[in-house]
Every structure is written in structure tokens, then in C-alpha cells.
Specification:
single chain, 8% strand, Arc Repressor Mutant, subunit A, mainly alpha, 3-stranded antiparallel sheet, elongated
Length: 152
Amino acid sequence: MIDLSKKNPQKSRNTELNDALEAIHFGYRALIAKPDARLAEISYSRVHHRILYFIAQHPETSVNELLDVMGISKQYLNRPLRQLTEAGYVVVKADTRDKRVKRISLSNKGEKLEFELSEEQRKRFEKVFKQAGPHAEAGWREIMALLISSGK
């Protein structure tokens, strides 16, 4: 078999970049598998988890602030947020200073579900960061930060 990577360095680099794309795809798939299965049990999807997660991280956020942090449209947010509110996972209240602004937070029920869904992911990160070591974790965090900032 001929090793084309020696003759065509671009081919080799493309292969490495494809490996990186596959790694992020399969890593993400492994990270979300258990939460997705739990969400399916209650007829919810990944967007419901993301909404719960970001509300948990930003309690008493406004709907517009949530839209900004998640980078989604009102139309995309409307249905799953309404489902979560109607099911008692999310509480919506008018802002104390500006009644036009809706503040959202998790109910106790919502906090429990968010914890159940995200704790598995936190444990997985804890395990792999421990296995990889602090230098590898720092490198991963740097790469993720660069990916995030390069998309802006």
C-alpha cells in the first residue's frame, strides 16, 4: 500500500482534521446519550435540557437574556419553554421593576430534572479530566475557548 500522506501533506492534515471532527461528534454523542434517553422517556428533547441547564446557570434570567445566551430565536424557544412551564419545571414571573420583562427560573421539580440530566455529564467530565490529567484538561479548555471565540 502506498502512503499518500508522505506525498501529499495536505491529505494528511485533512485526515487529522477529519479525525478531530469525528472525535467531537462521537464525544458529544457519548456525553448526551444518557440525558437524551431520559428526556425521551418524558417526551422531551435536547433543547429542553439546554433550556433547563441555562436557566439553572442563570436564575431569574429574562426570556431575552436566555435567547441571547443560547443563541436561538424566539420561535425556537417558544414551544419547549411553554411545555416546561406547563409541566411545572419552569416558573415565569413578571420583573419587579419592568412588568413587560418576564423572569424565568426553575421550580424545585425543574431543579431536580436539570440536576439528574446534567450530573451524569459532570461526572463524565470529572472522570475523563482525571484520567487525562490537568495539562490535557487545560489544553482541551483552551481549544474549546478558541472554537467558541472563532465562531463570533
